[in-house]
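Lab notebook, bench 4. The sequencing result for the construct came back, and we need a structural model before the next group meeting so we can plan mutations. Quick request posted to the team channel:

Model the 3D structure of this chain.
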Amino acid sequence: MVDDDAAVDGVRLAVWLDVACLFKSRSEAQMAVRGGKVSVNGQPAKANRRLRVGDELEISRPFGRKQRVRVLKFAEHHVAKAEARLLYEDLTPPPTAEEIETRRMERMYRAAMTPPRAPDKRQRRALRRMKGKV
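Done. Here's the predicted structure in token form:
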């Protein structure tokens, strides 16, 4: 973890989002910030914005969900995901029963709407044999 002297300067937003494991990669975090999906203390932010301890972030997630977190600490480099959860406090309210049901229905709909995959080599050979073309 970073000492108090380094915390005064803060850490770049995109870097912290990556280190805190809120996004899979720094480039993904940068794209989300550029796309207006992340706000700091209620204001839109840029990827190079310096975070300070106590800043509150709101991250727009897919399907209209919002994740709220408060910055507690900084890390100099990547840490394990379990340790990364100690860098922030999750302020996101738990989902309501309606939201849970809506998400379940969305998952079922997406699973039903996935297009069928093209046959692989073995399946193509079986189809040719069935059609009589050897």
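Residues 69 and 90 are 5 Å apart (CA to CA).
Will bring this to the meeting.
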